[in-house]
Design brief:
Largest interface: A-B, 31 and 31 residues
Largest sheet of chain A: 8 strands, antiparallel
Shape of chain A: elongated
Oligomer: homodimer
Number of helices of chain A: 6
Number of domains of chain A: 3
Number of strands of chain A: 25
Strand order of the largest sheet of chain A: 6-2-3-4-17-16-15-10
Distance between the termini of chain A: 72 Å
Strand content of chain A: 35-45%
CATH class of the largest domain in chain A: Alpha Beta
Helix content of chain A: 10-25%
Chain lengths: 376, 376
């Protein structure tokens, strides 16, 4: 196995492959990146318990002198490639278990792992993909993933539910204290599906999409989904189980609707949270929001030990409806507001102890819902 | 106590004062910042076991309506000031233990601590200061402080020794594995002194000097030193004990002297360290450096588990002297090289098991010394 390639080209692909390396695994071979060197291209593969990633490299800078397959310790290889400043690097297998990497006056000999130990990765090979725009996927992840559960009490809630029905994609995430829902009309037809993708996988996928701007093809079977991006395959396991029916908890009648400038509201909420006491269950800061008779919204917190905070926010337009007072975790509202692209948002109140709903004037078909907490 | 001030002005001074707040203290009052409001200026004070800081604010934006003294919880106040976006803020004592901070439509009530509990801080009040240029102090800290010991086995080594004699300032730091020494000729006369300043205090002082460009006056007594900067007082305790005589461990004869391009050498050393094994005692990466008969310098590491690294570095000028081979902690050389301003450095070898000395062509009167480790 001998090849040379531009260092920048290889490093960029290694940084994608890196997202498939495990942090900790009982199967040490997975710390390696599988290099398959063919006559005119390379295939690099990494995998852990959640995802498997494969990239194909057929860059014009690639010169292959001898084909072969090896398993190279991933993190060491990536660190070396980061630190190398020369333009070209050469990889050559010199013994059964030793690879030499040369770059200018640098020479690294890395002990290989046994390529025979590397598990076979089945990347899905199906018909009928669903084509999605890469930026749409990125947007959906940004708008929903933060609402997934981080603890494993109910494993199904640690992922985002993607349901496809009649040309519409319905995406929902909830940790049972708040919920994000995004609906998208698709231009393509497909068979219906109803899957839950782990939040960590979506985080990694989102980072890969930062550098990819074409359509992504989705291939789905009952256990996994493959995202195919030109020369990158990103496959993740799916969460098992039935996702809860969340439609019934979203209120439909809102006696009070208040419009806000998003940035003003966000800053006021962040300031009030500085002093607010923490919720016993979630450890999050609890703040109060109330609509005063003079139509000004008051955001406040009371803390016997440290002190009190009070912000007045003037709604962006006239408010109708009764005076209302509600308390909730400030972090939920901060995260929801940050996920909107709109500069103006509405908060829709169903009642003092009912979930309230946040929408953005420019973010069509996106809603966030937050459960209030009871206060004295 | 009532005053108003521009938020930016106050925040900038609070960020200096912050460096004197303790992380953890058995004396909770020290979590507070002492505010003394006089007719035409404010004095803010913070202190912990190492340092005490005082800033005077007499900015033209300051409007004092009522004098007074209070102790305001430091971290909460600083967080609030950071998050406030309005131009002006008002502070008003409304009850014995409650201060109101108003900014636009924001209002914070902070519970005060008991000002009577705040300890008296004696800032030195002496004659005969030594005047030093602030950038010189910053440079000395950068060039020496990293060589101080981080563990407390020999407490005296956790500081930098500043010795003044016959118009010269001699600055030394060592953790007993490496040493940094900087000599400076001063323009002013002063009484002789020989003090050791804790490394943490120097770190904080260095950050304050980032925003200060005038002369600094030093006032020294046997227990502490005061750095006086226009409207800022920075006082630190001194380490007790006698600093070891380090002159005798610096070799004076060097059979081999090699010139390097600093950046080239630094990059080669950093790459080799990626694979190098770790020293049992210090847990640092051990690398080898040898001068070959062909006058090329080889930097290498051997690691039975992971692999080997080898770099060839061509000296910046002709090398005279015998072939030499030496092993040492790469981190020591990396840190030493980074502390030089020069783009060219020399490594001066006294022998294979003797300390070697690094100098920069533009960094006069600065030397770094590193002890080699024995290898097989």
């Amino acid at each position: 196995m001998i090849f040379t390639i531009d260092r920048d080209v290889l490093l960029n692909q290694l940084l994608i492959i890196q997202k498939g390396l495990p942090n900790k695994t009982p199967l040490p071979i997975l710390y390696a990146i599988k290099f398959e060197v063919y006559e005119d291209h390379l295939l690099l593969t990494s995998s852990n318990t959640d995802v498997a990633i494969q990239v194909l490299i057929d860059d014009s800078s690639l010169v292959i002198k001898k084909t072969g397959k090896v398993a190279i310790p991933g993190r060491y290889l990536i660190e070396i490639m980061r630190k190398i400043s020369s333009q070209r690097v050469e990889f050559a297998l010199i013994e059964d278990k030793l690879i030499v990497i040369k770059a200018d006056r640098s020479e690294f000999k890395l002990r290989l792992m046994d390529i025979e130990d590397y598990p076979d990765i089945d990347f899905l090979d199906l018909d009928d993909p669903i084509a999605l725009d890469s930026q749409l996927i990125k947007t959906i992840i940004k708008e929903t993933n933060y609402s997934t559960a981080t603890n494993e009490k109910r494993p199904i809630l640690t992922g985002v539910n993607f349901k496809y029905l009649d040309n519409h994609l319905y995406c929902v995430a909830t940790d049972s204290y708040r919920l994000s829902q995004k609906n998208v009309k698709l231009r393509t037809h497909s068979k219906t599906f109803d899957i839950v993708i782990p939040n960590r996988s979506l985080d990694e996928l989102s980072k890969i999409l930062d550098t990819y701007n074409n359509d992504v093809e989705l291939y789905i079977n009952p256990n996994k989904v493959l995202f195919k991006m030109n020369k990158i395959l990103f496959q993740t396991r799916l969460l098992e189980g039935t996702y809860p029916d969340t439609m019934r908890i979203i209120p439909t009648e809102f006696p009070v609707i208040i419009h806000f400038n998003k940035e003003e509201l966000l800053q006021a909420v962040e300031r009030v949270s500085l002093l607010s006491p923490r919720d016993r269950e979630t450890n999050y800061n609890i703040i109060k929001m109330s609509l005063r008779p003079d139509s000004i919204v008051e955001i406040s917190s009371t803390n016997n030990e440290i002190g009190d905070a009070l912000e007045e926010v003037i709604p962006a337009s006239d408010v109708t409806g009764p005076v209302i007072k509600i308390a909730f975790s400030s972090r939920y509202l901060v995260e929801a507001l940050k996920s909107f692209s709109s500069s103006e948002v509405t908060i829709n109140f169903a009642g003092e102890v009912k979930p309230f709903v946040i929408k953005g004037n420019l973010d069509q078909d996106l809603l966030h819902l937050i459960l209030p907490v009871r206060i004295d």
